[in-house]
Amino acid sequence: MPVDEETLCAAVSLAVVILGLITLSASRNRVLARMGGRNLLRRKGNTAIIIGGLMVGTAIISSSFVVGDTMDTFVSGIVLDVLHTTDEVISVQDVTGAEESFNSTAYDALAHNISAIPGVDGVSPQLSGRVAVLDRRTELSEASMGLFGIDFPNGTAFGPLRTTQGETISSLKADELAIASSSAKALDAQQGHVLTLYTPTGPHNLTVAAVLRAEGRAGLGVGIYVDIHTAQVLLNETGHYTSILVSNDGGTKGGLGPTAKVVEALEKVLPYRLVISAPKLELLAQIPSEVLVAQEFNGTDLLVSALDSQGHPTALMPVDQQALVDRLWASPLVDGVALQVRVPRLTMRSLSPAEHGGSVEVTVQGFEPNDSHALSFGPLLQLPSPEGPDLFPFPLGPLQQDQVALSLPAARALGVTPGEYVRVVSDVPGIPPRDLEVVALVSSEGAGSGLRAVAYVEPTTGQSLGALTGPNELAVSLLGDPATGLQRLAMAQFLLAPIVGDHGLRFYVSVVKADQLAESRESVSEFSQLFLVFGTFSIIAGVILILNIFVMLAEERKAEMGMARAIGMRRSHLKRMYLYEGSLYAAIASGIGAVAGVGIGYVVMMAIGNIFSASASSSDPQFHLLDSFTFTPGSLVVSAVAGMVISISTIAIAAHRISTLNIVAAIRDLPEQPPPPQDRRLVLLGGATALGGLAIAAAGIGVEQLALLTTGIAMAILGCALVARRFIPDRWAFSAAGSFILLEWAVPFGWWPDYSSDIEMFILGGLFLVLGALLLVVFNSRQVVRAVMGIFAPARRSQAVVRSAISYSLHSRFRTGMTISMFALVIFTITTLSMIVGMLSTNLEAQVIEQSGGYQIEAHTNPLTPLRDASTALGLAGFGPQRVGDLAVFQTGEVQFTNKRDLFGNPWRYPLLGVNRSFAEGNRFTLESHLTKYADDRATWHALMEEPSVAIIDRSVLGFEFGPSAPYRLALGDRVEMLGAANQTIVVTVIGIVDTFLLQGLFVQDQVAIEGFNFTSSSQVLLSPATGVVAGSLAKDLERAFLPFGMQVTVLREELQTFLSVQQQFFDLFSAFLGLGLIVGICGLGIITIRSVHERRQQIGMLRAIGFRRRQITGLFLLETGFIAVLGILIGTALGIFLGYQIWRDSFEQAGFSFVLPLGPILWVSGICLMMTLASTFPPSLRAGRVPPAEALRYE
Amino acid sequence: MTGSAKGMKRRTKTSPSQTPLVRLRDVRKVYDTGKVRIDALQGISLDILPGEMVMVMGPSGCGKTTLLNCCSGLDEITSGLVEVEGVDITTMQDNARTDYRARHMGFIFQFYNLLPVLTAVENVELPLLVAGARPAEARQRALEMLDQVGLRNWQSHLPAELSGGQRQRVTIARALVNSPKIVWADEPTGDLDTATGTDIMDLMCRLNRDQGQTFVVVTHDPEVGARGGRMVTMRDGAIAHDVLLKPKDPRHAR
Fold first, then answer.
1. A833 lies in a domain?
2. Which of A668, A1100, A1104, A1106 should we substitute to test contact with B (largest number of B Cβ atoms within 10 Å)?
3. Chain A positions in Cβ-Cβ contact with residue B111 (cut-off 8 Å)
4. Which residues is A340 bridged to in the sheet?
5. Same domain, A1019 and A901
6. CB B118 to CB A804 under 8 A?
7. A229 shares its domain with A333
8. Do A312 and A343 reside in the same domain of the chain?
9. In A, which residues are within 8 Å of B131 by CB distance?
10. Could you tell me if A668 lies within 8 Å of chain B, comparing CB atoms?
11. Domain that residue A606 falls in
12. Do A1106 and B72 touch (CB under 8 A)?
């Protein structure tokens, strides 16, 4: 997450403006500036404490930047190390979007042209795949390992292969391999060992020629490297490659520079790819009406589109245009082919007067309306003008350049009529906007669109709008009535695909280096932002501490401020004086804080490194995060500025509060009175807050944003309380407000299912819950004192101490409230995190069952080498009933949903799992949902075995609540169409969604899989060990026995335990980060105690005079701070449990998780927190007890 | 009543049958910072009889407050003897002396020194609670005392909500709540206007007269000093005069 130049410039500018304004103001008010400066130097101890408090926020921001910088360096380092000089990778996709290998002759034809591109300094082919491996000497095996065929000597330029001794490998013989360090470690393989590679062509023995250092291509430490010709033999890909590596000028890092230009040139060198699509089926997925869909596209059944290597529309080459037309015409299925220009997603804006306005995203379609077109695709019909003689739509005449005919949805959205002008804007750079005259509106009858925004233009206009040099698409009309038999389209698409595909290879350029760096930066940024989110509570605690410190400073200087006011100093003068003084503190603190953040960042990175190392059980260098420890000056500057802005803003608020003091009260050191209920300003403020809150809540409802809604409601409640105090006592008004805010957060999250929310709800939840609880406690302080006195009633001699301590605590509402909230916020977060971790850990069994359906082991083979008859194969290999208990065997294969596309418009390929009756009746998978006509999960599974036309699908189709969305979506009741083995269409309806991430696929009856798709083998099984058999050893034996099939076995419990352990460690790390907030709170209490002892010396003397012993005075101060800490801890814990319960009720209960209250960690954290508080307040409390009474009474 | 001190100009006569409540013999108090040595009390000998109202006067820095602090056990003495009811409080451990103060002494200060966070009644009952009294009894006794000083209706008010005179009355109630043998008052009217000061002195004199409560009052106000039964005047850490006064107002006569 390195700081970009814009952010840095903005930060520096902001700092210059703020400090400049303050300096300017100070130079005009020199006396005030001098007073502020001298106050800074007045008490050096105080100054140190204040700077310490102020630097917390900066340090937290700075540390999260440092975490980001280090992670960025670390991840980028891996990307650059592994990719080395590889900048782009060219691969080939089939018409359905799947990657496939290609003939080496294609590479030979392209290599020269690619090499000639300016900016390219290397091209090399590569062949990769996965194999199972056995070290014959150590007898250790790995079920799936990457195999990379290197084109020596060119290929090594794309990442050198160096042995652990540092020698570069320049060639490998046909029976030799080199193995990366981690893979060698897993197999205990050394130079000279013979490894058996189980490949699609059978087992092959190769000798280890070298163990590779974890750098360059072997940078991740995994994989086997062989000569590319050896790889071709092993993977049964003789004469084939899987990709072409391209290196740009400039080396590893510098290669990024020419990327854009190289990619642009590659697009010209590489042939475009053709995609065949069925627009009617795509629309049918959105609008379930065959009549409407057929009418929308009329005769256009299929589209053959030319896309460049980046997926953008591109013009068909003239030679291809004719060849494709001829080839498609030759098909007996086709009755019409037309070339056209189609540019999707252009923005069109009305140029008419403002009352029309509007803009719309249109698809521009350019072709000549002519007879041949009209015959097979249907005519474009123009709507009659109201003033014209025609009553019915009539054929659209030829269009001129700069003229456009609009579909009705487009015209309506833009509010334009014929004769008006529209402007078309492309998001492709370099294409200027173009103004067109609307000459006609197109009827939905005929070929015109009635549902979509379409603009019809003549071809050259269309080409210029899409920067095309010719037509880019072929519309294909199939034999038969356009209005019927949409189902035949999927089959036609499938059958015509080879005709289109024969046209050529569909090369696809992956900008690997730039993309992977961008992706890694994105994920690093999210990761470091998590620290910032958790650090927010500590930053808030820091802000509260600043407020507390300044209010205390003001209290200390009350009398002198009163005098200053009395002799003519205005409120604004006081405000400025504090601002000047505070700005000096803030400037110093932000500088020190930014540097301190580097230290905190180092500790955090050390902890993350430990977590990674432990979870990976590896000592690989890639987990030595601290080697990448770094920070940029930009990060420090930005965090320093951010911290300074927070500090100065807080100081400005504190200064305003201070400046409102009452002169007489200040001089006589009388306590400030709360504003009278009649104070009109407060009533107005309350009204405005309430109305503002309601407006925000309404906006939240409008955009379905939970954060806005809840914040708005809470603001409205607070505003109402401010107004209500005009009529009822403060206690009633604010107690009611506190209760309502707590109630607001008691509403189950499930009430707002469609509202969007993210991690900010956690922060808001914490803030508002703490606020609600604080209002209740602070405005009912007498009742709280009474309750506590009741607890201490048996200890009669302590009554005086307890009462004095608690009364002191609750007397300073602002100071105590702020301090309590510091503790409560942090403990709240730690408690909630502990509860989530506790529930996940304690309910491990429930999770195992939920995810695995009651099976303990998941095993899958290489899809290329599935097991023919898994049950028998297992039995024959010695895994009969004596070793294996429950066994679920699936008939597996991959199918394509012909009526579904993913969110990117790509064909949707999905695994199919044919299940047998014993699995359907015996599994314990929970269904996320099922059609209501089935009584329960069991009935739904039962229906699957009874009805061949139904299916159950895994929950990944629902997407995720947080994080990236799934690229495809399905809902309960959706119909899925697939092409069977005999080209028949097989339709199933989704009747249930299974709640597991373990199995991904569409579950159907095994008979459907076998008879419909001819899937007769299994690449995935689930099983449980028989009684007395250890899952771990069974898993190892299975992997060994089925090594030739590349079987990988997972013991689910172990997997989940590892996952939970990592999760726990990260939560611990976040808790430790939150601990910074606690330290702030504890420091705050220490400061308060020091100040209190100072302020109350005379009272201490009096208490000693009337009979308080030294120990009692010490106890009084300890109890006072302890009470604040305990109250904060109790509020934080209670609210954390409250939110934890909410989370359980909304997310875990349904999954069968029991509610867990992890008292151990909560008590431990609370205990430590309390002990630290008492330790920090003990020295001043002890000093208070030792104050000689006579001296204290003389103290003024 | 006997009083003796270095430089004493007048010795008053007392009845030998009365046992002094407080007995000071050759009390010295030296403040020695290492660089500066100040003889705050220079061999003070003084007897205070039960029921007396002793007014200690003198210029600023003469040792009035030091004398009061040493007599009450708030401060350590350098040498000499301080006996209260025949008990030498100078040899007591801090805790024992503190407990003794709690049970047998009351204090009134110039700046009231009420706990601002406690109500009037809570302030008054504090000495009883610290001495281990039952809370209900303490509350009852505190209310009685507030009644005596005329503040029963102000029991639930915080000090900030009371006037200076009312605060000092609360202080008097607090000083008397544990039925002390002696009440030490340091400038009890110093922070009050004349009328309120007179009012407070009236109250103290009434308690002295009606209940026989012993008061030792440090003041530099001659009018206040004149209200007592005996005036001890100090100068430079020693007693300059120790005289019995004739009350000007017959209401104050014993």
1. no
2. A1106
3. 1098
4. A473
5. yes
6. yes
7. no
8. yes
9. 1107
10. no
11. 1-83+515-673
12. no
Residue A652, SS3 per DSSP: helix
Total domains in the fold of chain A = 5
Instruction: Please identify among residues 796-835 of chain A the ones whose CB lies closer than 8 Å to any CB of chain B.
Output: 796-797, 799-801, 803-804, 807-808, 810-811
Provide the edge-to-edge strand list for the sheet that holds B22-32: B3-5, B37-48, B22-32, B79-84, B87-88
Residue A536 in contact with residue A56, Cβ under 8 Å?
Answer: no
C-alpha dihedral sign at B158, B161, B164, B165: negative
> Which residues in chain A have Cβ-Cβ distances shorter than 8 Å to B130?
797, 800-801, 1106-1108, 1112
Report the C-alpha gap between B222 and A357 in whole angstroms: 93
**pLDDT for res A739:** 93
What is the nearest CA distance from B246 to chain A, expressed in angstroms? 32
**CATH among 3.40.50.720, 3.30.1360.120, 3.40.1360.10, 3.40.50.300 for B3-114+181-247:** 3.40.50.300
- Taken in order A802, A804, A809, A810, the sign of the CA dihedral is positive
Domains of chain B: which residue ranges?
A: 3-114+181-247
For B163, which residue in chain A has the nearest alpha carbon? A670
CB atoms within 10 A of CB B231: 22
Chain B nearest-CA residue for A669: B160
Looking at the fold, whether A550 and A634 belong to one and the same domain comes out as yes
Cβ separation A1105–B74 shorter than 8 A:
yes
Instruction: Determine, yes or no, domain membership for A834.
Output: no
- Examine the fold and report which residue of A1052, A1073, A1100 is the final residue of a domain before the chain moves on: A1052
Do residues A945 and A931 share a domain?
A: yes
Give the confidence band of B1 by pLDDT, cuts at 50, 70, 90: very low
Structure tokens at A754: 């469609």
Testing the interface with A: which of B115, B145, B174, B182 to mutate, by most A Cβ within 10 A?
A: B115
User: Nearest CA to CA, how far is B107 from chain A (Å)?
Assistant: 7
pTM above 0.90, yes or no: no
Contact: A799, B135; criterion CB under 8 Å? yes
Rounded to whole angstroms, how far apart are CA atoms A220 and A179? 12
In chain A, residues with a C-beta closer than 8 Å to the C-beta of B113 are 1098-1099, 1101-1102, 1193
Q: Do A1188 and B75 touch (CB under 8 A)?
A: yes
Q: Tens digit of pLDDT for each residue in B108-117?
A: 888 778 888 8
Structure-token match 């007396």, residue found: B52
Instruction: Flag whether A952 is in a domain.
Output: yes
Cβ contact B99–A1109 (<8 Å): yes
Global ipTM:
0.82
pLDDT averages per 10-residue partition of chain A, 1196 residues = 76 90 88 81 74 81 84 82 84 65 81 87 87 85 84 74 85 91 87 90 91 73 87 89 88 85 83 79 76 80 79 74 80 83 83 63 66 62 73 78 87 84 80 87 79 84 82 84 68 76 66 84 75 74 76 73 73 83 89 91 82 56 69 89 88 79 56 66 89 92 85 92 88 92 79 69 83 89 81 75 84 79 83 83 74 83 80 88 88 80 61 89 85 90 91 76 50 84 86 82 91 86 89 87 83 78 75 73 77 82 88 90 88 88 79 80 84 87 87 68
Find out whether the peptide bond into A125 is cis, omega within 30 degrees of 0.
no
Same domain? For A859 and A931 the reply is yes
The reply to whether A334 and A480 lie within a common domain is: yes
Buried b (16+ CB within 10 A) or exposed e, B105-133: bbbbbbbbbbbbbbbbbbbbbbbbbbbbb
User: Do residues B241 and B10 make contact, with C-beta atoms less than 8 angstroms apart?
Assistant: yes
Do the Cβ atoms of A1098 and B122 come within 8 Å?
A: no
Chain B contact present for A157, CB below 8 A: no
Q: Which residue, A473, A499, A525, sits at the end of a domain?
A: A499
- Show the tokens assigned to A272: 């475009």
Q: Does A479 share its domain with A589?
A: no
Query: Which amino acid does the sequence have at A324?
Result: L
